[in-house]
Design goal:
single chain; alpha/beta; Rossmann fold; N-(1-d-carboxylethyl)-l-norvaline Dehydrogenase, domain 2; 2 domains; 6-stranded parallel β-sheet; 3-stranded mixed β-sheet; 9 strands; 55% helix; globular; binds NADP nicotinamide-adenine-dinucleotide phosphate; NAD binding; NADP binding; 3-OH-isobutyrate_DH-rel_CS; oxidoreductase; oxidoreductase activity
Length: 292
């Protein structure tokens, strides 16, 4: 079995790494804080003290990190993956980051004959645990084919989207749909409440028809129960929408819906909800409606 490195063991990274361990891969793990490393070592993983060491000991290196600067420093910074990777290593970034960064890292690594795949995921922490993530991949087709068994251990809907950056672009399209569906779910539940309807029943009814969405079906019940624990953090959605807007600006593409939801998510983060789940957007809309 191949040695696989995994860096970034947060809400998503830890269950994804656990799936690889359970599939029989020899896993070398690293994280900024030590606790998730200790938890994975207890399950049979090997600890590494730096991204460089992870790469020195692995044939594949996966990163699952918050934002552009984190991915850049872990892969291309001092003691980074690039310093330990050898010819033939495949570096796979599964974080949601800019396609421009993916293309830049691809070029840097290609100069060392190291492959890079941008392979962001869609699906919740529950999908990460169950190995049912959607994975959208950009990069060299041959590298994608080599990495496919790893993807199959973490997801069951795997798509090759094209050259470097194309997985990252696909994920940004996904985040547009995610954020606007989230806003729609919040507003539908607000009207339901104001009209005196049973909100849970409204979710059930809407979920059978043309207004159904994952956001409404999965996050709606949490909004009603006031369960704002994070599956997907507000600060990460804010980051995703920032990247969407940067890319749209560069492409000269007006995205008015994204502008609206991005400002609401920014406000929600400013109010101290950055580490809460995105379903907490309903609290901001309730306040705007005088229903807080
Ligand atoms: N959560 C979701 O539902 C979801 C779904 C799809 C995609 N995503 C995307 O996946 C990525 C990760 O999301 P997440 O929810 O797993 O985030 P998270 O819970 O914040 O986890 C991020 C992890 O990265 C670690 N980290 C940060 N900087 C590091 C560094 N320099 N070196 C080593 N480790 C570092 C953090 O360590 P600490 O323990 O020190 O904080 C943490 O364990 C994000 O880009 C997000 O947008 C998330």
């Amino acid at each position: 079995m191949s040695f696989v490195g995994f860096i970034g063991l947060g809400l998503m990274g830890k269950p994804m790494a656990t799936r690889l361990l359970k599939a029989g891969y020899c896993l070398v793990v690293h994280n900024r804080s030590p606790k998730p490393v200790e938890e994975l070592v207890a399950l049979g993983a090997l600890p590494a003290s730096s991204p460089r060491e992870v790469a020195e000991r692995s044939e594949f290196v996966i990163t699952m990190l918050p934002d552009n600067p984190d991915v850049r420093s872990v892969i291309a910074g001092a003691n980074g993956v690039i310093e330990g990777a050898r010819e033939g290593t495949v570096v796979i970034d599964m974080s949601t980051v800019s396609p421009y960064l993916a293309q830049e890292l691809n070029a840097m690594l290609a100069a060392k004959s190291v492959d890079f795949l941008d392979a962001p995921v869609s699906g919740s922490t529950m999908a990460a645990e169950a190995g049912t993530l959607t994975i959208m991949v950009g990069g060299r087709k041959e590298a994608y084919e080599r990495a496919l068994p790893l993807f199959r251990a973490m997801g069951d809907k795997i798509f090759y989207m094209g050259g470097p950056g194309m997985g990252a672009y696909t994920k940004l399209c996904n985040q547009i749909a995610v954020s606007l569906n989230l806003l729609a779910a919040c507003e539908a539940l607000l009207l339901a409440k104001k009209a005196g309807l049973d909100q849970q029943k409204v979710i059930e009814v809407l979920s059978t028809g043309a207004g159904s969405s994952w956001q409404l079906a999965t996050l709606g019940p949490r909004m009603i129960k006031r369960d704002f624990r994070p599956g997907f953090k507000v600060q990460h959605l804010r980051k995703d929408l920032r990247i969407v807007r940067e890319i749209a600006e560069h492409l000269g593409l007006p995205l008015p819906g994204v502008g609206l939801v991005a400002e609401l998510i920014k406000s929600l983060e400013q109010r101290g909800h950055g580490a809460d789940g995105t379903q907490s957007l309903i609290t901001l809309l309730e306040e705007l409606a005088g229903m807080g």
